[in-house]
Amino acid sequence: MLSLSIDGAEALQARLDAFPAAVLSELAVKAQALGEALADKVRNEKLSGQVLNARSGALRDSIGAEVTSGGDEVSASVGSYGDVKYAAIQEYGGKTAAHQILPTKGNVLAFLVAGAMHFARRVEHPGSVIPERSYLRSSLEEMSADIVAALAATPTETWEDA
Fold first, then answer.
1. pTM, entire model
2. pLDDT for the residue 54
3. One domain, residues 73 and 143
4. Which domain holds residue 114?
């Protein structure tokens, strides 16, 4: 007859029971750091001349990272948060419809053409074709190997640190 006894079985069971919550917590911390790193890349590289040049800085300033966790899930999103209407068309490209441009702060529009000042009550814009200028997806693609590696290492690091 063989008899087997394991010293520390209760401690091991407690460690195993706590492991999923510890991994989830560490994944949330890493997701926040990785999301912020991705948002920084978009702001400081892609929207600072690499893909688009900043005019007002509104698109660059709207880029942020959000991490949510609940139950057994952690989710990170990086994107344009706010009311930057042209964010999606710059990322994916597209067409704008013909439309009128009307003054908002006065009775007429004023603009320079070939160095001469012109005034108009309205301008008929023919619409535009905007090419794709990926700043979000291209940044994610460039960072994806590092993101996957960091997240994949989390269970091992959490076990070793416990």
1. 0.82
2. 85
3. yes
4. 94-129
